[in-house]
Amino acid sequence: MRLKDKVAVVTGAASGIGEATAKKFISEGAKLVLLDLKRADVDRVMSDIENLGGDCIGIEADVTDREKVDELFQTAVDHYGRVDVVINNAGITQDARLVKMTEEQWDNVIEVNLKGVFNVSQAAANVMIEQKSGVILNASSVVGIYGNFGQTNYAASKWGVIGMTKSWAKELGKYNIRVNAIAPGFISTPMVEKMPEKVKEIMKNKSVLNRLGKPEEIAAGYAFLASDEAQYITGTVLSIDGGTVI
């Protein structure tokens, strides 16, 4: 087990990539602190994990609420004694073309996807600096690297995540803290599955593998980057996109 007894915090853990990552980390021996917006969703994933024999606690909170984020890390340290890995998975989309995008749509996406990552990572860094070890893994996107029609706010937030990732890798390396990001392509999550078939076909055709990615494939990338197998990797953005951007 590559992550045996490591304590990992996963945000946005109640569906899609976050849920797949939580279950992958349990299979690799990690102990988990799960964070999402709705208590019922957190409890469902916790129940699944406990049925798999996993050790976890769950917290209902919003990553944009700094007080709640600080409480999350205090709870994690009180319960497990440390935090070894953080997966900044929580994120939202509110799409519109530039000329149609409202200020509220812009603010909402930036608040969750950028400020939320900042909040969680700053709180994590305070714990990890004291430990002199840790791994912070951030969810970017191929959209953050290459842009996408109708996603000005999302692209800006995910490009910003890359900038923060590289900056934090430089700042935190002296404390034995690694910081990396994953840039998923188009992944078959509940949000994507609700889209019209025509849109999903366009997404599939962008990949040279001619399919959408699976949440488990992104989770596998997080598990590798969190493990000691990746202990000389920091400041990197790993694209897992099925060749979408070739």
UniProtKB/TrEMBL annotation:
Source superkingdom: Bacteria
Residues of the Ketoreductase domain: 6-185
InterPro entries (alphabetical): 3oxo_ACP_reduc, KR_dom, NAD(P)-bd_dom_sf, Sc_DH/Rdtase_CS, SDR, SDR_fam
Keywords: Fatty acid biosynthesis, Fatty acid metabolism, Lipid biosynthesis, Lipid metabolism, NADP, Oxidoreductase
Reactions listed under catalytic activity: a (3R)-hydroxyacyl-[ACP] + NADP(+) = a 3-oxoacyl-[ACP] + NADPH + H(+)
PROSITE patterns membership: ADH_SHORT
A Pfam family of this chain: adh_short_C2
CDD domains referenced in this protein's UniProt entry, alphabetically: BKR_SDR_c (cd05333)
Binding positions for NADP(+) per the UniProt entry: 89, 154-158, 187
Involved pathway(s): Lipid metabolism; fatty acid biosynthesis
SUPFAM superfamilies xrefs: NAD(P)-binding Rossmann-fold domains
One GO biological process term: fatty acid biosynthetic process
Documented EC number(s): 1.1.1.100
Active site: 154
Alphabetized GO MF terms: 3-oxoacyl-[acyl-carrier-protein] reductase (NADPH) activity; NAD binding
Known partners and oligomeric status: Homotetramer.
Family classification: Belongs to the short-chain dehydrogenases/reductases (SDR) family.
Function comment: Catalyzes the NADPH-dependent reduction of beta-ketoacyl-ACP substrates to beta-hydroxyacyl-ACP products, the first reductive step in the elongation cycle of fatty acid biosynthesis.
Name by which UniProt lists this protein: 3-oxoacyl-[acyl-carrier-protein] reductase
Organism of provenance: Oceanobacillus piezotolerans
